[in-house]
Amino acid sequence: MTNAVTGHPEERELLHAAFRSFDEAAHTLQQSYGALTTRVEQMDLELARSNEALRRQLGDNEAMRVHLDGVLESLSTGVLVVDDGETISRSNRAAETLLGATDAELRNRRATDVLADAGLGLCDRPQRIGQTVLSISRVPLRNDSGECSGHLILFQDITRIYQLEEQLQRKERLAAMGELIGRIAHEIRNPLGSVELFASMLQRDLAEHSSAKRYARQISQAVQSMDRLLANLLLYTRPVRMARDWHVAEPLIGESIKLAAHALTKVPIDISVDIGREVHAIWCHDGQLKQVLVNLIVNAVQAMPHGGVLAISLSQEPRQALGIPAVRLTVRDSGLGIDPAHRSRIFDPFFTTKDEGTGLGLAIVYSIVEAHQGRIDVESTVGQGTACSIILPHPSIGEDPNEAQGGMRSEPGSSDALPIEHEAVIAEEWSHE
Fold first, then answer.
1. Fold assignment, 75-157
2. Least crowded by CB within 10 Å, which of 229, 355, 422, 432?
């Protein structure tokens, strides 16, 4: 066999050429395999880097999602996320609290139906839900490319702003009315004095049992009644001047209840008094504050024609209420409540819903509270009752009240304290309804 192979040089040459070609192909294949191995290793490294970057991005996106969820849930503004079909896809905690429903209950419902069930609508005017005043607006929700992908319905609690606007409007209205009332009262009081004088002279000159003397006495009584009304008007229109001091809370409230006994005995009333341990005394003028309490108690009784519960409470108020230390004195009834149409007018002079009322009681209450540099808040639900809360400055005992309360006009025991213009308690027969 060897001889046969070696005997053919051509075949031997072909065989060598075949081996050389095989070696070259194997070498090329080895190089390709090495290059492929290097490329696979590079791709593995790039893939590992890409996977790490993707994991970081997913982690960042999750952290951002959690952060945005936290921001959304922490907002005091209620938010409903609505798609193009007006269907709710998301809500935050503030919206759920205002609407009285959970996110699961709100999701996949039409936004207009949810608002209608709560007695609300998409409009510019302020709307009430319970004791809260809301501003409801709608803004487009846009994606990264700027295209609209739904809407946001925003619920903004504007209760405090609304109250401040009401107070400002009330002050402007009362200032204008007060100036007019003062002028009219002075103009009427002058001739009224002459009528009283002549009626007294007639009583003196006429026979004791004559009908004319009885008529003169009735004229004199009517004039005196008018004079008391004018005195109340002047009390309202003049700045209330008072010397404030510390007064123990319990006897002050107890004496006010006794002064209102004429109203409390007319219907069965259960009275409760709750005085917080942290509030032992009130910085006020006791006579004026009693007048305020008597008027509020009488109003509360008038709002409970068939009896009910009268609750008086005194507690410490958070500093932000007035910007200084303060206390809250609340008179709450379980009566008829205030018609929402009357809420903005209850402190206006001459506004009353009773035929026998003069509409001055609450106007004077408002004036006295303002003179104490305080605030009066009213919460009411028709058919459930009303709570009138007086928020008064409460400096620390022993500190300078002028400095603590922004310039009180007098201090306890000051010799130059201005006199009280009227000490009589004006009990206005006014009903909430």
1. Beta-Lactamase (3.30.450)
2. 355
